[in-house]
Amino acid sequence: MFTRCAFRRSFDRREPKVTSARFGMAALVFLCLLTRGAWAGEETRPTPGEILLKGLKPGQEGTLKRSEILVLGRVSQGPTKHYPGMVPLAEYAASRMRDLGIRRGGVLLARDNAELVRYLKEGKVDWVSETPFSALYYQEAAGGDVLLLRWKKGVARYRTVFFTKKDSGIHSLDDLRGRVLAFNDLGSTTSFLFPVAILKQKEIGLVRLKSRGDRPPPDQVGYLFTHGDEVTVSTWVHRGLADAGAFSDLDWNSEQTTPTSFRDNFKIIYQSPLIPRALEITRKDLDPRIRDRLKQILLHLHEDPQAASMLEDYSRTLKFDRVDKNMAKELDNLREWYQRVRMEVAVPAE
Questions:
Q1: Which long-range contacts (C-beta less than 8 Å, at least 24 apart) are formed by 217-222?
Q2: Which one, of 118, 32, 38, lies nearest residue 70 by Cα?
């Protein structure tokens, strides 16, 4: 049973705390049933590892069981960015499962992949939407099932591009030896994990640098994280803070991420194969009836005019697609790339 609780701040680097007489564990984060308006009006803003709880509707205090809540989860270092788009989707799906005993939809955010895997194993999260390398890690580490392909930001597939200044003297990936490469962050598929897998496949060694002033050995590629938006990667290359950068082709073609004034002085030295944009994963022991219903709801979501704005807010999702034979083959190929960076995928957030 769930007790009524107000928003509260509780941050611990190792384990989030929730004050509840019955539960007292991080699983209660899925009670974040936030509305867009209520979220925008709160003075307190969350930080990674923080738990926000909103009181249940009148008359529901102490009546909800865990099995009556459909929980959508994801890794996030920016809760205020992700909650508003996630909560309506969780509630929408839950509202169409009343006959299966689901009464509400909720959200649980984890600090990193390792924490989200634990939530999946412990049954605190039912369903996750993630980029492919993280999704494959959830499948391997927690036994999750690939449910659907998601057209995130309007596309079904994307790729990594390596780029540099036209006058850098860098013409291929081999030329990156002895140079500095800028990545976005540790969890990015196209701006860290996939580029690292590509360089490993080509037997090009990498070394993480401690600061921007450091240089790598002449036979290795040094790399740094910008820890900002993808525009920071292009900015570093433009300003000469890094010799090259890597991110998605979507970022390359985005005026916000790679302004024309930057792009005119850049060149692409390598493009990766296309990979799925995002995958929906369910926990392995989710009730098959709920899993099948969720699949049908998401597949037909784009056909509902009332869901258009919700999909737009959910990272500009166009629609969800089945994993057909061709996609299954793509995932098999992707697993070969994933094996090269599986240890990096599991690294906790910094």
A1: 217/178, 218/177, 218/178, 219/177, 219/178, 220/177, 220/178, 221/176, 221/177, 221/178, 221/179, 221/181, 222/179, 222/180, 222/181
A2: 32
Q: DSSP for 265-325, please give it.
A: TEEEEEEPPPEESEEEEE-TTS-HHHHHHHHHHHHTGGG-GGGHHHHHHTTT---EE---H
Task: State residue 32's pLDDT score.
Answer: 40
Distance CA 5, CA 299 (A): 35
The structure tokens 């591009």 sit at 161
Fold of 160-272: D-Maltodextrin-Binding Protein; domain 2 (3.40.190)
| pLDDT for 348 | 57
User: Which residue numbers in the chain have pLDDT < 50?
Assistant: 1-61
| Rg, C-alpha atoms of the chain | 21
pLDDT score, position 349: 56
Residue 206: per-residue pLDDT: 95
Distance CA(340)–CA(350), nearest Å, equals 21
Amino acid at position 143, single letter: G
HEC-encoded secondary structure of 54-94: CCCCCCCCCCCCHHHEEEEEEECCCHHHHHHHHHHHHHHHH
The pLDDT assigned to 66 comes to: 81
Amino acid at 259: P
Q: What angle (nearest 5°) sits at the alpha carbon of residue 205, between those of residues 200 and 208?
A: 110
Q: 120: part of which helix (H) or strand (E)?
A: helix 113-121
Q: What is the pLDDT of residue 346?
A: 64
Select from 144, 250, 138, 239 the least CA-distant residue to 191.
Answer: 250
In this structure, what token pair is assigned to residue 342?
């599986």
What's the CATH superfamily of 26-155+277-345? Periplasmic binding protein-like II (3.40.190.10)
Residue boundaries of the structural domains of the chain: 26-155+277-345, 160-272
Whether the pTM exceeds 0.85: the reply is no
Rounded to whole angstroms, how far apart are CA atoms 50 and 53? 10
SS3 183: strand
Residue 195: enclosing H or E segment and its boundaries?
helix 194-201
